[in-house]
Amino acid sequence: MTRRLNALVVAFLALAFAAAAEPLQPAPLPHVMILATGGTIAGTGATATTTVGYTAATIGVEALIAAVPELAKVARVSGEQVFQIASENMTPDNWLRLGRRVNELLARDDVAGVVITHGTDTLEETAYFLDLVVKSAKPIVLVGAMRPATAISADGPMNLYNAVALAASREAVGRGVLVCMNDRIDAARDVTKTNTVALDTFRSPELGVLGMMEGGRPAFYRTADRAHTTATEFDIKDLRELPKVGIALAYAGSGRIAIDAMVAAGVKGIVNAGVGDGSLSVEARAALVEARAKGIVVVRASRIPGGAVARNGEADDDALDFVVADNLSPQKARILLALALTRTTDTREIQRMFRRY
């Protein structure tokens, strides 16, 4: 019995030493899909010093990837050209197509995350739309550039590297759609473009960044608590189009012209970007009351870049049957209202959504 036990011990030790002698194989890098939509990050200028007056959306996704060989150190990267447009030409139809493609890719076991290259003009809108409709906890990161790819000190390559590293990281899982530019990590709901030309234009002025990229790794400092991605009630799988929602910008003497024009155009909802705390002029109030009587859902937002619109503050929203936008910008309130209208026209339910998302 003792001899048999000794033999088993010797055999076990031999197997253990043999296994230890074999070199450990590194784990395969995460697979990150890059979906390209155009924008400045894919733009070219006449000279190396051209940073305005360049042509956006001229470089394809494969060239973008090839320009940053360091991507191979953080992920296995594949590219797909979804659109090739300047982002001022982004439309709700584009959003639906992009959202469905992101959902398809993230449903695959071999895809760990998605990076979307995008023009900066409407990047924050696309990010928030995806934050509400993507049904995956896997990382989704939007990235762009403020200088074309041909410019001296172009910011696109480093931004792209950081975005891919972020999308490949475990730390980014479950945090909703992220925007990664100029080493900052921002939540899709909070971020906005704050400067027409500066490299650090994307910021979250009210609530601050979620984190920073440090040496190709994310360092997170806070979590965005509003519901997103897998926790939302919005489904675009079979949605053919978004309901039309317009934004009416208030200013001294703006009157009711824009509101009446949108009603005549057949919108289903109006976001009024009011002055101050969403205040309404006499003319705007009358026009919005008439619009609501026709079944159009009215949301009171503010043109002010900070602060929330108080319900029943500058208007009796309960009596008028209006919705308030919380602290969403008018452009993001428009997105949430359009998606809300795919579910209901009940203003109480829509107000609940504005509190939740």
Q: What is the CATH architecture assignment of the largest domain?
A: 3-Layer(aba) Sandwich
Shape: globular
The helix-and-strand class reads: alpha/beta
Q: Low-confidence segments, ≥5 residues, pLDDT <50?
A: 8-20
Total count of strands: 14
Task: Indicate the mean pLDDT.
Answer: 94
Q: Please, could you describe this protein's structure?
A:
With 357 residues, the chain is α/β, with parallel strands linked by helices. The protein has helices at 2-21, 61-66, 92-106, 123-133, 156-167, 257-264, 282-293, 317-320, 330-340, 347-356, and strands at 31-38, 76-85, 113-117, 140-143, 177-181, 184-187, 192-193, 202-203, 211-214, 217-220, 245-249, 269-274, 297-302, 323-324. Helix 8 links the parallel strand 13 (297-302) and strand 14 (323-324). The radius of gyration is 25 Å and the shape is globular. The termini are far apart.
Helices and strands in order, then pairings?
Layout: H1 2-21, E1 31-38, H2 61-66, E2 76-85, H3 92-106, E3 113-117, H4 123-133, E4 140-143, H5 156-167, E5 177-181, E6 184-187, E7 192-193, E8 202-203, E9 211-214, E10 217-220, E11 245-249, H6 257-264, E12 269-274, H7 282-293, E13 297-302, H8 317-320, E14 323-324, H9 330-340, H10 347-356
Helix pairs in contact: 4-9
